[in-house]
Amino acid sequence: MADLEGKVALVTGGSSGIGRSTALAFARAGAKVAVADVAVEGGEETARMIREIGGEAIFVLTDVTQSHQVEALVRKTVDTYGRLDCAFNNAGIEGAVTSTTQCSEENWHRVMAINLTGVWLCMKHEIVQMQKQGGGAIVNTSSISGLTGLGSNPAYVSSKHGVIGLTRLAAVEYAKQGIRVNAVCPAAIATPMVKGLVDAHPDMEQFVTGMQPMGRLGTPEEVAQVVVWLCSDSASFVTGQALPVDGGMVAQ
Ligand SMILES: NC(=O)c1ccc[n+]([C@@H]2O[C@H](COP(=O)([O-])OP(=O)(O)OC[C@H]3O[C@@H](n4cnc5c(N)ncnc54)[C@H](O)[C@@H]3O)[C@@H](O)[C@H]2O)c1
Predict the structure, then answer these.
(1) What are the backbone angles phi and psi of residue 206, rounded to the nearest 5°?
(2) pLDDT tens by residue, 182-208
(3) Is position 174 annotated as part of the catalytic site?
(4) Residue of 26, 81, 88, 156 marked active site
(5) What domains, with CATH codes, occur in the chain?
(6) What is the pLDDT of residues 20-44, one digit of tens each?
(7) Which of 60, 93, 222 to mutate to test ligand 1, by most ligand atoms within 8 A of the CB atom?
(8) 76: exposed, middle or buried (C-beta count within 10 Å: 0-12, 13-18, 19+)?
C-alpha cells in the first residue's frame, strides 16, 4: 500500500463508484480527504465511511462545472486541513449513447461541461494552491474512450481524449514546480455508471466483457489502487501519462 500519511487529498465524483473507492483508498493510505460531488447523500455517506475506518473526511457540495464552486472546494479543503497534496478529478457522466450524427447539441455540451471543462476548472484552482506549497500530484479520470474510438458516444469519447491533452499539457507546464499530473484510463468498471448503461442496453455487459482479454469488468478498487500509487512518492518520476487500467483491453 502506497504511503500518504499526513497528506491531504481531494476527490470529485466522490459520492459513488470509482470516486468513493478512491476516497476510501486515500484514507486507508493515511490521507485526510475532501469528498466533492453534486450528490449530497452519497457524498456524506462516503465521508461517514471514511470516519468509520478511523480516517478524517469532509463532504463539500460541488458542481465541477461552476468555477466559483470549485474554487470554494479548494479553499474549504485548505481551511480545514491546511493544504492540498493530491487531487483526483474524477466526476463524469456517460451522456447519451448515440452515433455522431444523432448526438444532440444538448448532450454534447453537458458531457463536455462536466467531463472536460470540469477537469480543467479543478486543475486551474488546485494548481494555484499546489504552487503555493511547492508541489502536489493530480490524477484525472479519462477512459479507454480517451485512447480509442470505441463506445458509440462522440461527446464522451471527445471529452475523454480532451482530458488526456489537458493532462499532458499541465504535466509539462508545471513539472519544474514539483506538480505531477497523470490520467487513468479505465475500461468498463462495475459502478453505477455501467449499471445504468447495462440496464438501458442489456446486451452491453456481454459485449464489453467479450472484448476484454480478462473476460470481466474491473472493480472500482482496482482503479483506486492505481490512483493512490500515482499520487504517492512511489511514482515520483511519473508525469504526463495516460495509464490504462483496463485488463489488457487497449493492448489488443
Ligand atoms: N465505470 C466505468 O466503466 C468507467 C470507465 C472509464 C471511465 N470512467 C470514468 O470514471 C469516472 C467515475 O465514473 P463512475 O463509473 O464511478 O460513475 P458514477 O456515476 O458511479 O460516479 C460519478 C460521480 O460523478 C458525480 N458527478 C456528476 N456530475 C457532477 C458534477 N457536475 N459535479 C460534481 N460531481 C458530479 C456523480 O454524482 C457521481 O457521484 C467518470 O469520469 C467516468 O467517465 C468510468
Answers:
(1) -65, -40
(2) 999 999 999 988 888 788 888 878 888
(3) no
(4) 156
(5) 8-189+223-244 (3.40.50.720)
(6) 999 999 999 999 999 999 999 999 9
(7) 93
(8) middle
